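Question: Now follow the chain.
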Amino acid sequence: MSGLHSRLQAFQTQLQPSPLTRVDDPIVSGRGIQLWLKRDDLLHPVVSGNKWRKLKYILNDALYRGADTVLSMGGAYSNHLHALAFAGRALGLNTVGYIRGERPPELNPTLRDLVAWGMELRFLSRQHYRQLRAFRASGSLPGLKPGEYWLPEGGAMATALQGVAESVAEIDIGFDTLAVACGTGTTLAGLIGAAPPGTELIGVAALKGGEFLIEDIQSLLDSSGAANDAAWRIVTEYHCGGFAKTTPHLLDFIADFQRRHAIELEPVYTGKLLYALYDLIARGHFPAGHRIVAVHSGGLQGKRGNG
């Protein structure tokens, strides 16, 4: 394939720039630190954040392969499926979402959006859902029909790394640390492959037991052929009880941050990312003069019914 498919190029015109915003906060500056947010939450009102970064070249691949249907998986509040359903409709692709758990008596706002945008919902038991995680390539799902393209959970494919890597080139300041929240680790993998030499990369695990992300990220890097000699690590102690779980301290932090900076956060990903960075700053992890860029990965739609 060469370049972007024409349908994808047309959709690209709807995207807005992703600016850098400095977080001017005495808690940070008092330690001699500069903290900046890469505002990927502002890319698009629906397909925002790292979800679009990951989908961009995956959907490009699907279009060039002649696919007419993209199948993927996620939870009932999945930002990934939310972005896929909207983008699929915009690109003229049918979409199918395998949803973890039984069909609820009443669909939540996220699921209602998926239906409104034409996604076919297939609800699975948690056991069957876990089994789908074994299929990591676009043609690997058993029973795929001609024209169907399989997209693993969260867009965790080597193809996704190219779109994520583009965000690094957009950062027009020097920085020492690049930080992002991790669900599947795909976004961090894309950042690792594009980060300037000498950059420290931190992934804040949004789920309990996030140590497995190290192996998954390394596998994505190996599959993509991206440079992977950067210094990176996963921080696992800020999950606040597990994926989509919260604590009063986390919610208080988010409310205070939003009040003081007028930047909306959600408690699943970016809220935990900044909660972790503030704690690391307070504990002296970063030396004075350090400049940190944190990626705001969007996902704000999930706040409507999930914290």
User: Anything to note?
Assistant: The chain has two domains: 10-46+162-304, 49-155. DSSP finds eleven helices and ten strands in the chain. The chain has a mean pLDDT of 95.
